[in-house]
Specification:
Radius of gyration: 22 Å
Bound molecules: zinc ion
Largest sheet: 5 strands, mixed
Helix content: 40-55%
Distance between the termini: 55 Å
Strand order of the largest sheet: 4-3-5-6-7
Strand content: 5-15%
CATH architecture of the largest domain: 3-Layer(aba) Sandwich
CATH topology of the largest domain: Dna Topoisomerase Vi A Subunit, Chain: A, domain 2
Structural class: alpha/beta
Number of helices: 8
Length: 208
């Protein structure tokens, strides 16, 4: 945009620009959306909204940490799933992100444990196995209570690469390694799957 008066490029006041830049840090949010969000804040947030928003940002950074056992995000040292003695400790379902745990928990169809990798292997982004919670998983699997590892990474290239890597590492062990697949579309992101699709994906898991 150019100023009608002086024909110099128009700039937002610095505070607005800073907010736009902050919103642009979110995945999938481009300049236009960030501008919309920023102006929404300017026009529609009152003091209480602003304080609540700042406080929620501050609180998640202060209170939320990965579970020491499985990497699932929690506000305690050990997450509720790991603490729950009624869960089937023979099974560990491996997901990319904490939000995938939430999605699968909502289906009420899985009673085992989880392990959150915190991402997937992606050489083009410089993310290798050493950048993920893989070492922690292998350490955990030394406990013989665990008998099955269910690979539930997304059906994307990165998810498949990660599944293949884990399969290769776990091949030599006595663990049963399975991969969910059935019903999920290629490139499917677990977080977007509906309950029935996830149920079928879990039920139809196959030995890797
Ligand atoms: Zn946990």
């Amino acid at each position: 945009m150019v100023c009608q008066e002086c024909s110099k490029p128009m700039k937002y006041p610095e505070a607005i620009q800073q907010l736009i830049d902050s919103f642009m840090r979110f995945p999938g949010v481009g300049r236009k959306t960030a501008e919309r969000y920023a102006f929404y804040v300017v026009n529609h947030f009152d003091e209480a909204d602003t304080v609540a928003f700042m406080e929620s940002l501050h609180r998640v950074k202060q209170e939320i940490k990965p579970c020491e056992t499985c990497g699932n995000l929690t506000d305690e040292t050990t997450c509720n799933v790991c603490k729950d003695k009624t869960r089937d400790r023979r099974k560990i379902l491996v997901v990319e992100e904490s939000k995938d745990v939430m999605v699968i928990e909502k289906t009420n169809m899985y009673d085992g444990l989880y392990h959150v990798l915190n991402g997937a292997i992606s050489p083009s982004d410089g993310i290798g196995p050493e950048n993920l919670n893989i070492k922690e998983l292998l350490e955990r699997l030394k406990d013989e209570t665990h008998q099955e590892v269910i690979l539930a990474m997304n059906l994307s290239e990165e998810g498949e690469t990660t599944a293949m890597y884990l399969h290769r590492v776990l091949e030599k062990t006595d663990l049963l390694v399975t991969r969910i697949a059935y019903g999920l579309p290629a490139g499917g992101n677990i977080s977007y799957a509906d309950e029935m699709t996830l149920f079928k994906a879990l039920e139809g898991r196959k030995k890797y």
